[in-house]
User: What shape does this take?
Amino acid sequence: MANKLAGEYLFFKSQPKNIRTLLITNMLYGLILPIIEIFVGAYIMRNTGNSSYVAIFQLFMYVGVVSTSILNGALLKIFKVNWLYSFGIMLSAVALMVMMFVHSIGIVQLGFAGFAIGASTGFFWTNRYLLALNSTNDKNRNYFFGLESFFFSLWSIVVPLTVGAFLGTINGKVWFGHTVDVNMGYEIITVVIFFIAIAACLVLSKGDFVNPIQKKFIYFKYHVLWQKFLALASLKGMVQGFLVTAPAILVMKLVGNEGSLGLIQGVAGGVTAIIVYVLGRIAKPEHRMRIFGFGLVVFFIGTMVNGIMFSAIGVIIFVLCKVLFQPLHDLAYFPTMMKTIDAVSAIEKRNEYAYILSHEVGLFFGRAGGMILFISLYNFASETFALKYALIIVGALQLISLPLAKHIIKEIDTRYKVTISD
Assistant: This one.
């Protein structure tokens, strides 16, 4: 076992410097992601008791993502891409800290907090896409996203278990003459996050990254191949919103508290982390659609079980399926996205960031559609109806992604392969 681990480490060391730098940076930022994806929703539920408020928060967050993605494109003309990436990491830590220290939560407060966290996310993800696109090629992207997903999955075990246990044990304790509650626990967590963000930025500063050469990045017409991929992005965006909101809402309502949330996420993440790393290490580009399809089916099964049972056991099964689905989906989706950008940017002779920005717009329409679906079902039917059937609708729509993704890959490999360089 020790020899195998040493061999994997040597393989990692053999990767180009920028790939290693990005992976270590994202490994550190991965410690923050579970807080944004899981415990923010739980925090809102704890302080409002209204699941529609979680959806509203997410909607404002996605507006922030698109807004700063546009701003980021303009700032790339002035600042280095890794500086903007670092700014996004730090902004996410600061925005979380501000949100957790303000206990009065209404629509206005949620709007500002959601937009701020979305703004940080916009800076983070768009620059991450750009750096990963320019630092990898189609041959090593499975490894890059597999190792990245491995750490994200690993932290999806460690962080929820640690945070859940911490919040569960400190509630009611007396520290330095003051009674500690769960909200104070959230404040302590955000301080730790702040220092993790600083460490990630220090690592990122070691990379040798370059900005796009071409400055124009806003276009309204794209090659038909990219239009098809934007449809795929919208489908991903639709499920993405529910992956953030649904587990927290369902667990807080049907299972228990943050401790239960952490335990469920942790149990599901262990096997997934190993599976994703192995797949990223050995899978070839032609295997991506099999991985993609398997993940989609797993997620759909989870939504059906949750809708039919709508109980603590149903929620646990859904979260297990969700934790397995997400890294498998990303492992196939992101290399496919970058292969498509390689093709269409070569065809249209445009800045790669133009496609990253339009991709965020595609995600936004899907995210907004998903959140509007949930809010509409919540208001015009009932909360129970929304929690049962919105997920099933979204899970069923995701199945369309597989034939669409297969068609895009076939088009690239048969009609546009000559335009892609390694």
Q: What stands out?
A: The mean pLDDT is 82.
